[in-house]
Amino acid sequence: MKRALITGITGQDGSYLADYLLKNDYEVHGVVRRTSSLERSRLAHLFKNPDIYNKRLFLHYADLEDITALRRIFLSVQADELYHLAGQSHVGLSFPMAEMTCDLTAIGTLRLLEIMRDMPGKPRLFHPSSSELFGQPKSSPQNEDTPYLPTSPYGCAKAFATQIVKVYRDCYGLFACNGIMYNHESPRRGENFVSRKICRAAAAIKLGLQAKLVLGNLDAERDWGYAPDYVRGMWLSLQQQKADDYLFATGETHSVRELVELAFKAVDLEWESHVEVDTALFRPSEPLRLVGDASKAKRELGWTPSCSFQELINLITRAEFDELQQLGSEGDNSRRNRT
Questions:
Q1: Residue 284, preceding bond cis, omega within 30 degrees?
Q2: Is 132 a catalytic residue?
Q3: Each residue's pLDDT tens digit in the chain (339 positions)?
């Protein structure tokens, strides 16, 4: 049985990766921040399974700033594969929280590489990079050789982390892969990300729980995919004979406006009367022409996305609708029980 260690296991990608690895007969260890919510809702289905939790899934406590605790976990677990998914991953928040973003995302990755360099049995490392590396690229679509031109603190932090992974691979012989991940979404996405914010608002408005949705730039475009597809790409990257970097994307761009239209259509609403634009929500610098060429991943890994953009937005919106409807029913039952 292979053993994997995941930093950021309670996040969207970490939870899907835990599911994927457990289905492939791994023993899975996760690093959890001491300040993480005790609820950990994305892993709830695993905690409730007595055949998995504390038998094939184990959690360890550490912060990315605590190199002593991290080193102790690494030496204790002795993982075959390390997936470093932890960090501050919200691009918009990286502007007011630039120092924290760079410390967690850039220097946090360096700390892990330093620990790996000293280990006798070195795990294979997957580091998720981002399309934000490219910022405002001069060519489109982008591939693994496109120059970095980040336009946000998050993009700058990821540029450092991506390059330092390459340096340690070349200089110290680590099996370390970067995956340049374009935007990928799911019902497990954080509510402060625009995709989830829009889909949840559409469902809430349909149910009469919300009146308006306030957004920034509706013309901003992204290459959006389905998170479980990208998690599969992470795993495939570490199964190769030689470490390399791969780009994962759908090759299509869609605007925020299109996302809004599809989300509201999924609940049979016209979006125009429910959405307001607030220029205060515009980013100081907006990436342009970000669309990925995943031909290398397709050719060398056999990776292809499985979910269309419309299917993705329908999936998230319907999941939000069902969840909010269930919460409403539970609230009604609770009130009836109290009376």
A1: no
A2: yes
A3: 999 999 999 999 999 999 999 999 999 999 998 764 445 689 999 999 999 999 999 999 998 888 999 999 999 999 999 999 998 877 878 788 899 899 999 999 999 999 999 998 899 999 999 999 999 898 999 999 999 999 999 999 999 999 999 999 999 999 999 999 999 999 999 888 999 999 999 999 999 999 999 999 999 999 999 999 999 999 999 999 999 999 999 999 999 999 999 999 999 999 999 999 998 888 776 666 899 999 999 999 999 999 999 999 999 999 999 999 998 766 655 555 554
Catalytic residue among 132, 185, 221, 261: 132
Residue 156 backbone dihedrals phi, psi, to 5 degrees:
-65, -40
Total length of the chain: 339
DSSP string, 14-60: HHHHHHHHHHTT-EEEEEE-TTS-S--GGGHHHHT-TTTBTTTEEEE
Cβ(114)–Cβ(157) below 8 Å: no
The catalytic residue among 15, 129, 130, 152 is 130
Query: Could you give the CA distance from residue 283 to residue 75 in angstroms, rounded to a whole number?
Result: 42
Q: Is the pTM of this model over 0.85?
A: yes
CA 65, CA 318: separation in Å to the nearest integer?
38
Q: Bridge-partner residues for 7, per DSSP?
A: 31, 84
Q: Which of 16, 83, 148, 154 is catalytic?
A: 154
- Domains of the chain (ranges; CATH) run 3-186+224-248 (3.40.50.720), 194-220+253-285+308-338 (3.90.25.10)
